[in-house]
Structures
1.
Amino acid sequence: METYASPPAPAPQDRTRLVPAMARGFLNRCPHCGEGHVFGRFLKVRPACEACGLEMEGHRADDLPPYLVIFLVGHIVGYLVLEIEMGYDVPLWISLTVWPLLTLVLALGLLQPVKGAVIGLQYTFGMHGFGKAPPARGGTGTGERRGGDAGTRAGDAPELGSA
Ligand SMILES: [Zn+2]
């Protein structure tokens, strides 16, 4: 029986390591092959990588990317506001335009990269939809399966049952 407490069945050496996988996701590249794309549109994740066939639709990034973006942008903008408003005599109209604009640009600009990095993290640890063995490295795109294919799609269902 498959339980969620046990580590994922696929051989970990077949997966990209954590930092490169997150960096690839940050740059909108497939965490497995680094060639395909993670996103089809702004925050819409592709069902699968177009280069290697890695299935990505089972990711559960959920609220973590916006949480991290709020954390990052809050610290960046908060620091700048304190530094500049305390050190210089800034006209009110500049304060009222620059800070909200900077916040908006940083938040929108970081949301996709941070979500990609979170998906890269989930891929490396075989979380959620990444429990199956990733495609072979050859780039054939045929989705070769290894022995003990424990991560069937049915295994994803129980998470939704407790609503
Ligand atoms: Zn790929």
2.
Amino acid sequence: MANKEEKADEKQSSWKDFIYNPRTGEFIGRTASSWALIFLFYLVFYGFLAGMFSLTMWVMLQTLDDHTPRYRDRVANPGLMIRPKYLEIGFNRSIPQQYNKYVQHLESFLQLYNDSIQDANKQCTDGEYFEQDKAEEKQVCQFKRSWLRSCSGLADSTFGYSEGQPCILVKMNRVIGLRPRGDPHINCAAKRETPLQMQYFPTEGTLDKSYFPYYGKTLHANYVQPVVAVKLLLTEEDYNSELVIECKVEGTDLLNNDERDKFLGRVTFRVKVLK
Ligand SMILES: *[C@@H]1O[C@H](CO)[C@@H](O)[C@H](O)[C@H]1NC(C)=O
Ligand SMILES: *[C@@H]1O[C@H](CO)[C@@H](O)[C@H](O)[C@H]1NC(C)=O
């Protein structure tokens, strides 16, 4: 019995010694100064890692511009899109319920182009890039919806849909810093033998240079992009059949015939008007 107790006592004291040994002053096998050195080492080591990380991060961020994305593919080659945002437009011109969604879509798109809003913007010089100093907030060149004449939705609130001569708005996607050369304009054509008559607003389908360059969402907050309205002057033979229409940006250095990307500088849509 006594033997067993002694052994248990011994075991306990060796455990106690391991946790704290009063003879050597060791705590879990190390002296206080040894532990202090280890803590110091890791403190310096992790501090150094954190410092390295912050430094490289800071250097990286210095090379970024707040307003322009760093990596952009196809910098100077915007896509084209149409409004209303449907690539298949079909309706019976006698039934308003069938074309209302197109009209509403055009109307809401043009809200920003209201003459009352655009009066606050700058009247820019046609045919010249509107270059602005980098620091300040950028001014916006005005583009009034009334310039779209019979496609403005002002005189004819159905944008020609009720008379069967619908308007389509063509716009070019915004690309920061883009300065299209030459005389950029939108040209549309029906893909068929006989040409389809169309009317452009502004005349010649011009995308004026004064709307370029665009400086990005933060600097150029109220920027409105130029649009070209195309009124399809359909005649009796054009009704009840599907027309395929392609619009391209022309007269400039922008790509419009890329084989892989059908929207690069061009857009194709279908129109079928029933009468
Ligand atoms: C735009 O003008 C029309 C009438 O001219 C008005 O009903 C509409 O509320 C205006 N929109 C904005 C956003 O000011
Ligand atoms: C278009 O709507 C009118 C009026 O409802 C109708 O008479 C005509 O047949 C429709 N046209 C077609 C091609 O369905």
